[in-house]
Amino acid sequence: MADLSRILTATRGRGRLDWTDWLSYAYLLLGLVLMFGPVVWLVLSSFKSAAALNEFPPQLLPYGQAATQVPGHAEALPLYRVKLPDGSTRELVELRRIGIEATMADPKHPDEEFKVNIRDRERVRAFHLALENYTEIFGKFDFGRFLWNSVFITVVATLITLLFNAMAAFALSKYRFGGEKWVFLLIISTLMIPPTIILVPNFLVVSELGLLNSPWGVIWPAVATPTGVFLLRQYMLTIPGELIDAARMDHASEWRIFWRIILPLSAPALAVLAIFSVMWRWNDFLWPLIVLSRTENFTLQLALNAFQGELTTQWHYLLAMTVLTLLPVTLVFAFLQRYITTGIASAGVK
Amino acid sequence: MAHLELAGVIKRYGDTTVIHGVDLSVRDGEFVVFVGPSGCGKSTLLRMISGLESVTDGELRLDGRRVNDVSAAQRGLAMVFQSYALYPHMTVYQNMAFGLQNIGTPRAQIDAKVRAAAKLLRLESLLERRPTQLSGGQRQRVAIGRAIVREPTVFLFDEPLSNLDAELRVQMRTEITALHQRLKTTMIYVTHDQVEAMTMADKIVVLRAGRVEQIGSPLELYNEPRNQFVAGFIGSPRMNFLSAQVTDVGPDGVRIKVDSNAQRGAATIPARGDPSLVGQTITLGIRPEHIRVHEGGAGEIELGATIEQLEQLGATSFLYCALPGGERLTVQVAGQVDKRSGEEINVCFPARDAHLFAKTEGEPAFERLRPAARD
Predict the structure, then answer these.
(1) Residue B99 lies in a domain
(2) Strand order in the sheet with B240-250
(3) Mind telling me how many Å the CA of B141 is from chain A's nearest CA?
(4) pTM of the predicted protein model
(5) Residue to test with chain B: of A175, A238, A243, A251, most B Cβ within 10 A
(6) Using a CB-CB distance cutoff of 8 angstroms, which residues of chain B are in contact with residue A247?
(7) Per CATH, is A141-341 categorized as 1.10.3720.10?
C-alpha cells in the first residue's frame, strides 16, 4: 500500500511538480478518462431505470423521478414540485395528464385535485439504483443459458488451446527435426491471413463436419492459435535443455517431461495465453454469429446483439447484461495478471 | 556392478567429426576422469555414454552388452550436470523422488531411499526447500542425491564443481571422493581442471580435439607423459619447455645440448631415441619443481636466468625467469627465497628428470622418447 502511494505521488521535480509532471499527469488523466470513462458511464447507466435512461439531458448518477404511494392507486405515482397560481410551491403527484394540462393531487389528500400546466412543475428527483435491471434479466431472458454457453465455450476452448499450443511449442522449442524452422514459419505465417478471408472456408468445413449450431463448432476452429504457439515457444526456449536431459536420465517419458517439467515451468506464459484466450473467446462475436443460429445456443455476446430490436431496444436490460458480460474477463485478468510478471524457470539453474 | 567399454567410438555432426574413435575400458568401481581443454569433446563423450547423445560409429558396451541404441533412461546410469539441472518447481525431496516415481517405485520405498540419501549428504533439514533457496554447495549435493537414490551402475559427472567458488570446490572434491569410497560405484567425471583430475582419479583420460592423448593413473601421466601435450597439461605450474640439440644417441641415453645460455648445457638424458635424430632440434621438458636455484653438479644441466617475477607463498616460492634466448622458465622452490626480481641467478636440474620430445612426421605433438631402463 505504501508502495502504491509512493508510485502514485511520484514526481520528477523534488518536492514540487516539474512541468514534465504536469504533462505526464495530464496525459495519464486523459488516458484514464478515455479508457475508464465509458466503463464508468456504462456501469452507472446500468443502474438507471428505463425512464431515467431516456431522459435528456442525461444524468451521470442514477437519479430517478421520486414516486410515492397514494391511497386508491395501485402503482406509485410520480412526484412533482408545482408552483401553484397563488404563488406557493407544493409537492404533488400526477394522477393523469392530457396534453399540457396535468391533473395533480396532494399525496396526503388525494381527493383535492389541481389542474396544472406542465410548464409550472418540475420533477422531484431521488437517488435510485434500479437493481431490478439485474434481477429481472434472469427471469425475462434465458440469461443463465447464454451465460452457460459462453462459459462452456470459453473454458473448454481455453483449456484445449493451452494444451494444443503447449504441445506444439514443446516440439518446436525442444526437439530438433528436419524442417523444424519451416513448420514454425508456416504456423507464424498464418498470422498474416485476416480471419475474414477464411471465414467462408471455415464455415464450409464446420458445416461439413455437422458442427453448426453446436458449441464445438465455435471451439474447434479457434483452439490452434499461431500467437499462442509463438508465445509459448519463445518462453520454452528459455527453459534450460539440461533440465530435460536430467529428466530423461530420471526415466521420465517424453509425455511425463511435458506434464511434469515443461508445463509447470511454462506457467507464466500459459497464464498470459490463458488471459488472451479467455478474452478472445469470451468477446468473440463474428464466428459464433455465423455458427450459432438457434437462440438456445447463443453466447452472451450474441444475446446482447439480439437485444437490439429493430424498432425498440430495452436499454436498461442491455446495459445490465453488458456489465455482467464484462465481469468474468475482468476477474480472470485480475487474478492471473500476477503470473505475467513472475518468472520462475531460470531459478534452480545457475 | 558395471564394466564399461568403448570400442572405436566416433561422433559426427554432419561432416564434422568431434570424437575420432575412442577406445576405453572402465573397470567396475573405478573413478575415471576425462580431462582436457575446453572443446576437446570430453562432455560430448560423457553424454554419449549417458545416452543423451547418439553414437555415430563404434560400440559402447555395458557389462559386455551393446547399448548404442538403448535409451538414456534404460541404461541405468545417473548424471550430475554442470548447472545441476534441479527442477526449480519441485522441492528437494520431490527432486530426489522424481526418478523413482518414474519407474513406479512404491511410495514407502521412495521415502526410505530419499531419506537415506539425504542423510548421507546432510540434506535432511533442507528436504522441503526449493532449489532457489539453497546455496551452490547444497544444490550440488541435491544433484548428487538425485543421482544416488536411483542406485545407478555408473555415475556420470559433467564438470560438477565448475560453478562453485574455490573453497567449496576443494570441499566438494573430498566429499565426492569420500562418496566414491563409500559407494564403490563406477564414476566417470569430466573436468577441465587437471588438479581435480589428479586428486580424484584412479584413471585419467586426457583428451584433445576428440582424440585420446593418454590414459593412465595420475602419477603415470605425471611421470611418463606420452607427448608434450600431456606433459604440459598435467602438473601445475606447467612443465617448462626448452629447445635443445641432439649431439649423440648412445646406448645409455641421448646426449643433448641446451641452446639457451647454458653454463653447463650438455648432458645425457636417459631416454631411447633414434640415431637419425642426431643434429636435430628437439624439445626438452622439465617440471618447475625439479629445478633448483644452485650451481649445477655432475649429471646436471645448469642455466643462467633473470628473475622476472617472484611469487612467495610461504611454503613454496615460484620464480618466473627469462632466459637470454627469449625462452621462459618457471622454478618452484620449497620454502622462502631471499631473491628479488631482476636478479641474475643460476638454476640447475638433474638430467634424469628431463623429458625429451621430438617432432615426428604427421604427429601433432612431440612424442616422448621412451625412457631407457631406469634404476
Answers:
(1) yes
(2) B266-269, B253-258, B240-250, B281-286, B355-359, B366-368
(3) 13
(4) 0.78
(5) A251
(6) 87, 98
(7) yes
